[in-house]
Amino acid sequence: MAKKNFKKGRSMKELRSFISDNEKLSIRSQCNLIDMNRSNYYYQPRGESEENLHFMRMMDEFWIDHPTYGVLQMQDFLRGKEYWVNHKRVRRLLRKMGIMPIYPKKNLSKLGKTKYIRPYLLRNLSITRPNQVWAIDITYIPMEKDFMYLTAIIDLYSRYVGYSGDTDPPFWAY
Q: Which of 18, 54, 75, 138 is the most buried (most CB within 10 A)?
């Protein structure tokens, strides 16, 4: 039980720091105590090769101008430069660099998972006079250098925006 809790959530680098060469216990015993393979203790990670670093540099510079390009387009880009690189290698390098193409994700039109969906209270209501029911709509409008929101408040009976004339103006007109 203690071994599971000790190892849970810790990285190999952190686990390696608990093992010391100057202890009375052997490295094998220390690795057994923290439930780590000795091969993980002795492993020295290799860095990326010069060739991969060159590919990563080229793909990074190209991605700045083409952020929608994914693995296959990057592979075509490298092939255009006379480098024959496997798509698996390109995918691994792009993941290592943290580069992900910008594109519309699937399922954008599905409803969100709200905790509570409110009922439509006007379903069986007959709208017979002005100023009985008002509706509001807010729209995002992109502009050349900025954006703005357009808000419209509509009388559902007469379909007019603003004061209908028969009765007192709505609360927002004051």
A: 75
Burial category of 94 from C-beta neighbours within 10 Å (exposed 0-12, middle 13-18, buried 19 and up): buried
The pLDDT value given to residue 143: 76
Asked if residues 165 and 159 have their Cβ atoms less than 8 Å apart, the reply is: no
Check if the beta carbon of residue 75 is closer than 8 Å to that of residue 87.
yes
How far is the C-alpha of 20 from the C-alpha of 167, rounded, in Å? Answer: 86
Q: CB atoms < 10 A from the CB of 6, how many?
A: 14
Confidence of residue 108 (pLDDT cuts 50, 70, 90): low
The three-state secondary structure class of 134 is strand
0.85 exceeded by pTM: no
* Separation CA 87–CA 97 (nearest Å): 15
Query: Quick one: DSSP state of residue 169?
Result: P
The whole-angstrom separation of Cα 101 and Cα 109 is: 20
Alpha helices of the chain — where are they, by DSSP H?
2-7, 12-17, 27-33, 38-42, 50-65, 71-80, 87-97
